[in-house]
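Tutorial sheet, problem 5. The two components below are modelled jointly, 854 residues in total.
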Amino acid sequence: MTPNRLTASEAAAAIAAGTLSSEDLVRDCLRRIGERESEIRAWAFIDTAGAIAAARNADTAKLLGAGPFGPLHGMPIGVKDIINTADMPTQHNSVIYRGNQPGSDAAVVMLLRAAGAVVIGKTETIEFAAHGRLPVTRNPHDPSRTPGGSSSGSAAAVGDFMVPLTLGTQTGGSVIRPGAFCGVFGFKPTYGTVSAEGIKLFSLTLDTVGWYGRSVADIALVAGVLEISDEAAPPRHAMSELRIGICRTPYWQRAEPEMKAAIEAAAERLRGAGAKVEDAELDSEFDAINDLKETVMRAEGRFAFLNLQRAYPEKISPGITKRMTRIPNRDLLKALDKAAELRVRFDALAGRYDAILTPAANGPAPVGLAYAGDPIFNGMWTLLHVPCLTMPARVDAGAMPVGLQLVGPRFGDARLLGVAETIASAI
Amino acid sequence: MTPNRLTASEAAAAIAAGTLSSEDLVRDCLRRIGERESEIRAWAFIDTAGAIAAARNADTAKLLGAGPFGPLHGMPIGVKDIINTADMPTQHNSVIYRGNQPGSDAAVVMLLRAAGAVVIGKTETIEFAAHGRLPVTRNPHDPSRTPGGSSSGSAAAVGDFMVPLTLGTQTGGSVIRPGAFCGVFGFKPTYGTVSAEGIKLFSLTLDTVGWYGRSVADIALVAGVLEISDEAAPPRHAMSELRIGICRTPYWQRAEPEMKAAIEAAAERLRGAGAKVEDAELDSEFDAINDLKETVMRAEGRFAFLNLQRAYPEKISPGITKRMTRIPNRDLLKALDKAAELRVRFDALAGRYDAILTPAANGPAPVGLAYAGDPIFNGMWTLLHVPCLTMPARVDAGAMPVGLQLVGPRFGDARLLGVAETIASAI
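Model answer (structure tokens):
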């Protein structure tokens, strides 16, 4: 197996053990990118020389024993191009920000670098991660299909073994859906646990930093670096101790046959492995939850994009501006207050299960690059501020992957990842 | 009267009428700064040449009739130094960010510039606006006293007639308290209505952009540019139609005699002018509201400063790090949910009045520069997300100013400013 195929946690262990150098790993990732990038188009910017130099520095420090070393020592990562980097342009897939060079790293980038990560480059995004211009990125499992968005390049790069870890962001479904479409593990933690400083904002109530890897352990590795959780280390549950709630959501009729089959098959598998699997039904209070999300996103999006609409009205895509029609503040207020109520209500429901299993998207990635897919199975969880993980499943061998989503109550991130580890090994 | 003494709305009218040039105004502000800055120390950075050039451009555009011109055409402003500016350093009063040059303007700066504003420079702040190193700024009414903080330079610069408008930010009481201490009008709008993109974050739930001027009209001028409100233009109320609630808050015993006297005098004055003035008592649910604010601020502050604690542990002031002791996530969750409940509850109370009158601070600015004063009369309103205005009052001629605070329900910003106009003219 070439180093680029290692998961982040495998690579971290190999680097720590001295059986893999950061430079070899970075060079192998760059080799993979060189072979595949003309087809996948995951990257808005790559700093080959900088990445190799940083990897060499990491290796030299290791040789000199100059530790302690962070958990991501020498680990190549990709950063969604709405997230600032001090040494690379941050262009938001926008003509306004072409060549834009921020003066400092976004908080989350600074944290990953402080843990030893080597930033290889910036990944493609939908313009400002907000209904604007689509990137040219293709799905690594089938280049005729969308990788999803807006974290398109980050999901595709991990799915195509170009890099083991990438950063994304979610306002509607921008981490979980592309993760599902590209067949990788993607995680959106509890709202507010990762600083959004130095990142293009869209909706104050919804925007959340997330990340991709190729195993639950990869996701947990980053979660540990970001210190998002203060729960006691989750016990390793036997499957027979788990109670899983299946939540079909108010939008189940919009799930495609592959997704319905994947959820039912997973439920069957879990039941077969000894878990208690029950329906976790949302009561009628949740019926219009995606409408609430839409109200919040549009109203807060208007505040977030007002500056660009004023300063660069011709240079911001109509897809963004047409969404920013003015929502009356009283409607925003009602939506915010209702969402606050529903958060408490959902946490109570989720607290009765070890995890909630629900679709990560309607189905597999749709054919075509002009449409990044529907966030209908994502927006509600973003509004509820809860941690969400997508893990890949396949209905048939050779078929496109579909994403199974696991959800827990707010701040139950570590526990959710612990349960996900058990579930992933059974599915 | 020299141009620097004009309020922003007076200056805007004079520039629009062609009776004042932007260059004359900017030069007069720079003259005032030159005379007073060695005593007041309001500025972290001043771009004299850039400001004059921008003013000349504004004047030339006006001469050529190249409009339409924004409501701040040619208006000099100051920007708190935790807010990014593309053409000036943004240093956060931190050794970490010495000489830091952001690549682009913060959203709010872009909006003010798009409306014609000329940024003269960056104003002094407490380190990261967060319990860190205090600036060297002095109170313009008495240089032996603090101007308050963290928006110290912004409040002092307006109070000292150095510039008619400045931007600040509030997490605890960082706009309203310095405004009160420096005898100016300061405004914190409803949470979420002004984008915080490009600004140092501290608490996701609390951080709010605000601004200073020398009249209610100045505050409303900026509110209009930022489009924070969609209410119908507020009617000009006769005083006899107003119903004002006096809210002494759970912390009234901490108000100093000057503040108690100022509130009672204002109530008397309003009653005398025909307004209905009643006690607006908060019920016992609000008793521990500042503790909730403290929990949210500390817990979210840890997420916000984790990157600097990791990357620059020696270069961040202990005043910040010692506040960021880990608050359990379950305590944060409880505080967030309780705050959401109290917001609805307070809006219902505030909706029964045209405005709530309450102290803006304990009293006048304390003597000494080593302590920026107590935010005890501010944090609760920040947590409640409501619009707050401080307006200056004096108990006796020659005494230090004290701040009267007017508060309204969320998104009632325009209405609150309309009522404030009526109240200000009576007090």
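Marking note: The first helix of chain A runs from residue 8 to 17. Full credit if you identified this.
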